[in-house]
Amino acid sequence: MADKPRIKLPKEAAKGEVIQIKTLVSHVMESGQRKDAQGKTIPRKIINKFACEFNGKPVFSCALEPAISANPYIQFDAKVDEAGTFKFSWTDDDGSVITAEEKIALKA
Amino acid sequence: MKAINRRQAFALGGGFVMLTLMPMAADAEVTNDAAKWIEKFTDGKTPAKGKISLDLPEIAENGNTVPLSINIESPMTAESYVKDVMIIADGNPNAGVATLSFTLLSGKAEASIRIRLATTQNVVAIAKMSDGSLFMEQKTVKVTIGGCGG
Fold first, then answer.
1. How does pLDDT run across B51-65, given as a tens digit for each residue?
2. In chain B, whose CA is at the least distance from the CA of A66?
3. Whole-structure pTM value
């Protein structure tokens, strides 16, 4: 895949704090509605699922349709009760998966 | 009868404009299978109003990327939390936009995404709570340049 996804979240959080996570991934999100110069339909190619888990437990997920803009931006919240790792995954129509990881620590 | 003065005339005129505009705003045309999507998600139950605040621009200059924020009022505890939220656009070639799934680890039932809107239409959000109750909110967005190509 092209670029690395961009993820923004705090480095550390207090126990029980709800943090905001912003994600942005580069993707054409071809809707399958557009036609090329020859009038042929450009086949659909989108990210159809985004998921975020924390230490193996699901936090937030999202089924996406062609009505999501190119380079999908997704912002959501997560409650942090322990230090650990967020895992993000974006699943493409063609089956490929873009993944990323971010660590978070607890505030002393 | 007393002749109406200028102020009253204005008020009357304004009333007329409201009357003629309102029905149009209320039923921006449904051009796709939005009803099917809604039925599948709600199992035929009628969602109640409220709890959801759906934030969308009133006028979107570029339908290719319209910011959408949603926030559902919920304590997000094991007893009561928001499970799934479906977002639908009733004037796009396909009604579905996204289905968000929250968990207890979400902390807040809040999310932002950017969506495509082909034309001026209603965006509908329906939230399913952990106890099975349903809530709905709807916003009309005017789109200057459509975002689905053609």
1. 999 999 999 989 999
2. B97
3. 0.82
The partner residue sitting opposite A60, judged by closest CB among B106, B117, B148, is B106
ipTM confidence score? 0.90
The pLDDT of residue B20: 46
Cα separations (Å) of B99 from B49, B70, B142? 19, 12, 23
CA distance A106 to chain B (A): 16
Give the residue ranges of DSSP H helices in chain A: none
- Report the half-sphere exposure of A63 (CA within 13 A, side-chain side): 8
Which residues in chain B are closer than 8 Å to A87, comparing Cβ atoms? Answer: none
Decide if A59 and B111 are in contact by the 8 Å CB cutoff: no
Q: Is the pLDDT of residue B18 over 60?
A: no
In sequence order, the 6+-apart residues with CB closer than 8 A to the CB of B42 are B126, B128, B134
CB < 8 Å to A31, chain B: 93, 116, 148-149
From the list B100, B95, B133, B134, the residue with the least C-alpha distance to B117 is B95
Nearest to A69 among B106, B110, B116 (CB): B116
CA distance A80 to A19: 7
Bridge partners of A99, per DSSP, are A89
pLDDT in tens, B76-111: 999 999 999 999 999 999 999 999 999 999 999 999
